[in-house]
Amino acid sequence: MHRLLSLIIILVALMALSGYSAAQAQAPGYAEITSPDPGEAVQGLVTIEGSASHPLFSAYELDFTFQDAPLDTWFPIVETRDVQIIDGRLGLWDTIGISDGDYKLRLRVSLENGTTLEDLIEGVRIRNQSAIEPATPVAADASRPTQTPIPPTPTARPTPIAIPEAPGGSAVTAALKSGLIIGAVAMTALGIYLFIRRRIRVRWAIRRMRRMLWQDDRNKRQGN
């Protein structure tokens, strides 16, 4: 009985935590590059700024590749780092030894539950040897495939999709309520089961006792 009760409590806790994790993983601001901007021209040593943070944060990586690379090959700027960054410097990108051209940046934040959050900045122009031409606007959909832009400003920055609130509370509250309801139903079912089992055992014991007494009385009569 104690094992069954412990199992039910663990299942309810896991359901509540999974709802919380899913909600948190989609919240804005956990994996975001704020500088440089899409289409920006850069030279020399470039400071990459943004945020890599989350309640379940494990580590983050920062990489770059050619804008039109035929293969999914990324070169590390910052290899796995287990320090959270909030609106600060994610890493330094030394572009001096890189050929002039268009590149894209990728920030990946790994969480303890196996989820990976990602942000892409496309069209970053390295111009160490060539003249800096006027910037070509980069489509928001191309630079942030999983995010939505902030409404109209000339330099609008896309942000991750916010979590819609469930009726009567946030997604976290809804998950916790669901877990509590399931736990209550399971506990009620367990109580009913234990009550019925006890009644059956009592009835069976009474019938067995009566049968034993009847058999004993019968044996005595046959002996007489």
Overview of the molecule:
The protein is an alpha+beta fold. The chain has 2 domains: 1-26 and 163-224, no CATH class; 28-160, Sandwich (Immunoglobulin-like). The chain has helices at 2-25, 140-143, 171-223; strands spanning 31-35, 41-42, 45-52, 57-66, 75-81, 85-94, 101-111, 116-126, 147-149, 158-160. A 5-stranded mixed β-sheet has the order 2-8-7-4-5, with no helix packed on it. A hairpin with a 4-residue loop joins β7 and β8. α1 (2-25) runs antiparallel to α3 (171-223). The longest helix is centred in the last third of the chain and has 53 residues, at 171-223.
Task: Report the strand count.
Answer: 10
CATH architecture of the largest domain: Sandwich
Poorly predicted sequence stretches spanning 5 or more consecutive residues: 15-27, 145-156
Q: Give a quick account of the main beta sheet: strands, pairing sense, barrel closure.
A: 5 strands, mixed
Relevant terms:
224 residues, alpha+beta, Immunoglobulin-like, 2 domains, five-stranded mixed beta sheet, three-stranded antiparallel beta sheet, 3 helices, 10 strands, rod-shaped
Task: Write a brief structural summary.
By secondary structure, this protein is α+β, with helices and mostly antiparallel strands. It folds into 2 domains: 1-26 and 163-224, no CATH class; 28-160, Sandwich (Immunoglobulin-like). The chain has helices spanning 2-25, 140-143, 171-223, and strands at 31-35, 41-42, 45-52, 57-66, 75-81, 85-94, 101-111, 116-126, 147-149, 158-160.
List the helices and strands and how they pair.
Blueprint: H1 2-25, E1 31-35, E2 41-42, E3 45-52, E4 57-66, E5 75-81, E6 85-94, E7 101-111, E8 116-126, H2 140-143, E9 147-149, E10 158-160, H3 171-223
Parallel strand pairs: 2-8
Antiparallel strand pairs: 1-3, 3-6, 4-5, 4-7, 7-8, 9-10
